[in-house]
């Protein structure tokens, strides 16, 4: 399976790292795009994953300025794309079909090809423009998720919270993350 992973400048680079690790373990071919906003956030987040940690997990890394990259074309077949975290700015671009960097172009391509697109937004509180943009991308076919883990699986560590969000995001692509316990299921997938 080939997936595009976009990382934009919302806070929460550890979410991207957790998803990339899970995708690598599942043998997925990931095409990674990291926006300049994401690089800025990465340095502000300090002790979190570094750019090299993310790129080491990808099958191919694309420069966000390279609008001639493979993932800029719909003829390059993928099983879909996620943007994690997705900034309010990137959400607005996707909602309005703007494609002035590779990340927003690849998201636009994913929508026009009617492939799964998952935007994991991170912002609080949500402004009216952001809420309208979320509705616009939803109506255009994307799934809008928030980087807000549930607590009904009794998390003990930050990794548990990251694992929850990772599993729910990969669910959108029909991918199972090992160790994720679903509601009312025992660990082997049977109803409890
Ligand atoms: C430390 C830091 C944290 C940020 N956190 C968020 C955030 O959680 N959500 C958001 O929408 N923007 C956030 N921003 C702002 C975006 O990074 C900024 O709007 C950027 O231009 C987005 O560009 P991009 O979508 O191309 O990455 C943050 C910026 C910085 C420097």
UniProtKB/TrEMBL annotation:
Binding site for dimethylallyl phosphate: 152, 168
Residues of the Flavoprotein domain: 1-172
The EC number(s) this enzyme carries: 2.5.1.129
A Pfam short name: Flavoprotein
Annotated catalysed reactions: dimethylallyl phosphate + FMNH2 = prenylated FMNH2 + phosphate
Entry keyword set: Flavoprotein, FMN, Prenyltransferase, Transferase
Residues bound to FMN: 9-11, 35, 87-90, 122
SUPFAM superfamilies per UniProt: Homo-oligomeric flavin-containing Cys decarboxylases, HFCD
UniProt feature coiled coil, ranges: none
Family: Belongs to the UbiX/PAD1 family.
Biological role stated in the UniProt entry: Flavin prenyltransferase that catalyzes the synthesis of the prenylated FMN cofactor (prenyl-FMN) for 4-hydroxy-3-polyprenylbenzoic acid decarboxylase UbiD. The prenyltransferase is metal-independent and links a dimethylallyl moiety from dimethylallyl monophosphate (DMAP) to the flavin N5 and C6 atoms of FMN.
Record-given protein name: Flavin prenyltransferase UbiX
Protein source organism: Deinococcus navajonensis
């Amino acid at each position: 399976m080939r997936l595009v992973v976009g990382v934009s400048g919302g806070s929460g680079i550890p979410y991207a790292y957790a998803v990339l690790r899970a995708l690598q373990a599942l043998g997925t071919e990931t095409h990674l795009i990291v926006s300049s906003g994401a690089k800025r956030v990465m340095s502000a987040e300090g002790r979190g994953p570094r750019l090299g940690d993310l790129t080491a997990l990808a099958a191919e890394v694309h420069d966000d300025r390279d609008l001639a990259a493979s993932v800029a074309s719909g003829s390059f077949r993928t099983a879909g794309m996620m943007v994690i975290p997705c900034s309010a700015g990137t959400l607005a671009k996707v909602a309005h079909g703007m494609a002035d960097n590779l990340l927003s172009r690849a998201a636009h391509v994913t929508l026009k090809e009617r492939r799964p697109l998952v935007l994991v937004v991170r912002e609080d509180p949500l402004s009216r423009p952001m809420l309208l943009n979320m509705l616009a991308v939803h109506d255009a076919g994307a799934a809008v998720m928030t980087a807000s883990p549930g607590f009904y699986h009794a998390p003990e560590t930050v990794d548990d919270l990251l694992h929850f969000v990772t599993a729910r995001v990969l669910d959108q692509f029909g991918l199972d993350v090992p160790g994720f316990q679903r509601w009312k299921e025992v660990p082997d997938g049977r109803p409890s």
